[in-house]
Amino acid sequence: MTPRLVVPLFCLLLTLLTGCHAHRAITPEPPPLTIPQIVALSQQGVPAEEIIARIRRSGLLYRLLPNQVERLRRKGVPREVLDYIQRQYRLALERYPELNDWDNWTLYEGYWYARPGGDEVDELTE
């Protein structure tokens, strides 16, 4: 290899390696937001809009039973948050029929959770 080619090839290699490394950066997935955490945020006075934004970022769906909805309301979870959770659940069932099967849900701390198809929840719109 001639000395004239060594420097340009080295620069090209360095550029490729640096560029590839930049593309390997992985954005960490936001941690799941559990129902007990939603209750805690509500009781701490966090506005409903902020709780809904956190739910969106977490990418989770919640399958609440009617008695759970009422219990959460009594514990101070804002109606807007509960309405959002239930609306997203209904939209997800339409978009992902496999979520009608309880086997596709995870029971944790007494509540059912799912992350549908890898999509973010906030993409589910009417």
Q: Low-confidence runs (pLDDT<50, min 5 residues)?
A: 5-23
* Order of neighbouring strands in the sheet with most strands: 1-3-2
Averaging pLDDT over every residue, what do you get? Answer: 81
Strand content of the residues, in percent?
Answer: 5-15%
Could you say how many structural domains there are in total? 1
Shape by Cα distribution: globular
Gyration radius, to the nearest Å?
Answer: 22 Å
Q: Main beta sheet, described?
A: 3 strands, antiparallel
DSSP strand count: 3
Alpha carbon gap, first and last residue = 63 Å
The helix/strand order is HHHEHHEE
Q: Tally the helices.
A: 5
Helix content: 40-55%
Report what the structure shows.
The structure is a single chain. This protein has one domain (35-123). Strand 2 (106-108) and strand 3 (111-114) form a beta hairpin. The protein has helices at residues 3-23, 35-43, 48-58, 66-74, 79-95; strands at 61-63, 106-108, 111-114. It has 5 helices and 3 strands; from the N terminus they run αααβααββ. Strands 1-3-2 form a 3-stranded antiparallel sheet. The protein is mainly alpha-helical and 126 residues long. Helix 3 (48-58) packs parallel to helix 5 (79-95). It starts with a helix and ends in a 12-residue tail after the last strand. The chain is 53% helix and 8% strand.
